[in-house]
Amino acid sequence: MTTDEVRSRLYDTTLLVGVFRRRAAIKALVQMPDPSGVVALARALHEGHPERGRIRSVLRKLLPLRDNSKIAALWAQWAQAPDPELAKILSALGCPSGRTQDARFVRAVLAAATSAAAPEILQAVAVFARSLPVMDEASNDGIYAAWIRSQSTELEQLIHEQSRQASSPVLEALHALVTGRLERYLELNDSDGMLLVHAFHMAPEPFRESIARAIGASPDRGLLENYRRALSSGTADAASNVENLKLVGDEDGLFEVTRSLCLLDVIDLCERWSSSAGRPGGTQQRAAVEHALAAHRTLGTFKVERTEPLPEGLVDVFEWWRHENSSEEQLRADLDSPDPFRNARGLYLAREGGLVDDARLHEAARSEHWPQRLVARLLEPELFPQTQQDHVFWVGACAGDASLLLSPIDGMPEDYARHIGLLSQARSPIGSRTRAFLEILCAFQGVFVASAIVIDEGTETVDRDAVEIEDAPNVSF
Length: 477
What we know:
By secondary structure, the chain is mainly alpha-helical. The protein has helices spanning 3-9, 18-31, 36-46, 52-60, 68-80, 84-93, 103-110, 119-130, 137-150, 153-161, 169-178, 182-187, 194-202, 205-216, 221-231, 238-248, 251-257, 263-274, 283-296, 317-323, 328-335, 340-350, 358-365, 370-379, 401-405, 413-424, 433-448.
């Protein structure tokens, strides 16, 4: 029987005799002296052959000393299409001995290690990687890269057990930090902290959490400073930075990162500070946190629910109004307009500019048109206690919260001055939610925003001791 006939019988579906012919073909293919037979069986296994249990059994019986070339052919076939079925068999068979692996083949096998790979595939990659020369930097770089992509514990352990050294100390620093082997990291003499910064850059989020835990357990202040530099390098978003700094227990770093947060996120941090003794080290920063916590304690329990995004094509009407950047003249025209929605827009935008007083808001709150009544209660809910049934009264429970909670901590001195003004004009008692929000916001803005430098472009100095800076025509900034 020719080889082609044997392969065709592997898929024989003839009634009654088909099963016997398939099993005979499996036996014949595995006994072929050349590797093509086992490669055909591997392809059949990958395709879900009805006799896959028998195929698995015969392939597992291959012996490394006797069937070295066949096992090598199976690895080559698997590298083209990695699958868990053959991976389990290859992990049991091991790698062929006495062979110098082609670089492209090595890369193909290691490329199978990804974060989405099945555990059987990662196990097979680790078995293969263990057989590669320990002193070969190119192979080691590939193993490190596969470990970073997949976060495989097998590859992580292999690197440590075989003391594999990469061509870049950054890779070794990353491995040492992720595995908590700080003594190995210190051996790399990262005096300026740049190894940690670059290692943090290439680390996936699970590795960053491991790094944070390792550094958090160390009393080395210099290591903490280097870690903070890595966080501030712009490679992670603010939310990730906060979580990592929490893991490290870096109170100074947590306070500094509030600069890039909004009030809602800072309130979450206040929850943490209220249940721990940790505080920033600086006098001004510690005082700001204590001030914020005093206000936070008056909030009691409240829950902020994130809203679902608007359907595609729709825009929040209040955001739309703000993005129109209406002039004062346009706002005054809106306030005199008989159109309820134009008038509501004028009320909403002109209140901030001081064009709408309380008397006008009271008039709007009594309007026969609901848009005016809604805006009046959104702007000043405490002016209008619920005295009658009105479908816009529901805003009284949360009006003003959304805009405050989304207020950024960072900003201009004008923002701080406006919030201080709102705080001093608050009509509610000290325990009100709005006042507490403003207290917390101003506590942090008082550190980051209140003392910001403002550049006056005027040519005359206001102080005879002031320093005058003139244009330097040959200097670029």
